[in-house]
Amino acid sequence: MTLAQIFEKIVGPEANVEFAAYDGSKAGPPGASVRIEVKSPIAVAYLAQSPGEMGLARAYIAGHLDVQGDMYTLLTEMAEITLNDMPVREKISVARSLGIKPLLMRVPPPPQEVRRSTMARLGSRHAKQRDAEAIHHHYDVSNRFYEWVLGPSMAYTCACFPEEGSSLEEAQFAKFDLVAKKLGLKPGMRLLDVGCGWGGMVMHAAKHYGVKGLGVTLSRQQAEWAQKAIAEAGLSELAEVRHLDYRDVTETGFDAVSSIGLTEHIGKDQLPGYFGFLYGKLKTGGRLLNHCITRPTGTEKTINKGGFINRYVFPDGELESVGHLIRAMEDTGFEIRHEENLREHYAKTLEKWCANLDDHWDEAVKEVGPGTARVWRLYMAGCIVGFERNKVQLHQVLGVKLDDDGEAGVPLRPSRDWP
């Protein structure tokens, strides 16, 4: 069995993908729009050590396996990347074909992979120091790199597309405006934005609603970029971003709290404390808008410790179902007033980010290195598939802190401005 035939078995014989290997073997339809090249025995060693998704990801990130063509097309063409369904006799045949050397060759994971031992030394999952390192790993890559990928909005969360043909910038503006309208922002109000990223929400609230906004982020690079952008926009009297753990915010009495893309980093066991903390920051009648990625049901694992996303992208990230999040909010004291799923919007957002990365590929590789650029190419394309196929969802949940008489202070019907 040739190397190309082995890889064809792993990714699925029905995939419309061309294969070529360093041993001269080829498989798949010649001239296919996507081509996989196995460039060295180290790629085979990675696969032997970790059959399936992780082995292929390591080989690609390390540069020993290459992909010519669109990564999203490749991932949609490929069958499940696993050897678990392969009959034992075929596994034995594959092992014999590989030979003993790749099976014995121990190659370290690419440096972009987060080691479990490194994280363990920083304390238990979601301890402050460990959370800070997890955020640093993903968000402190390079502000310039993020500018290329995210575009001028610097919004690294799901956009909301008003129309099919809306641009990324229009959709990100619409997302921030949707959050503002759901929170009922008005001039003179105070907003706390936890996990604020590069400050997009606090700047939007200040500029378009006259709201005094405080944003906090565990990424120093994000905070520095945001403070500079706020000053350049002339919004310093209303908007502020601090390099701070949300748990260390001392101010209270906010009219509204927005949490856009932070809950994924909180952890299932910490949710009661998280929502309780935010509840305590609000005035009576204040609103919380929680915007985050979720699992489609409560039956899946909240965290895949050995998966690609956890190892390379979001260390310690956990995804719960929207039902679990709503129950946690309710148990804290919030009354749920509105909920919606923006799953398809996140797939479209990721498509735009992938296109931006492709447009700036050479600059991105020069800025962050080929390994990190490849992590992003693989991760974002894979996430498009995940949202399209309902493996993950994106939900916005609006909660209200009722007054002593049970009054919510919200309109009888949601505003017609809400998409």
TrEMBL record:
Q: Which UniProt keywords apply?
A: Lipid metabolism, Methyltransferase, S-adenosyl-L-methionine, Transferase
Output the GO biological process annotations, alphabetical, semicolon-separated: lipid biosynthetic process; methylation
By its UniProt entry, which Pfam families does this protein fall under?
CMAS (PF02353)
Q: Which Gene3D superfamilies match?
A: Vaccinia Virus protein VP39
Molecular-function GO term, any one: methyltransferase activity
Catalytic positions are C383
Task: Please give the CDD domains that the UniProt record associates with this protein.
Answer: AdoMet_MTases
Task: Kindly give the PANTHER family that the UniProt entry links to this protein.
Answer: CYCLOPROPANE-FATTY-ACYL-PHOSPHOLIPID SYNTHASE
Regarding protein family, the annotation reads: Belongs to the CFA/CMAS family.
Question: What name appears for this protein in its UniProt entry?
Answer: Cyclopropane-fatty-acyl-phospholipid synthase
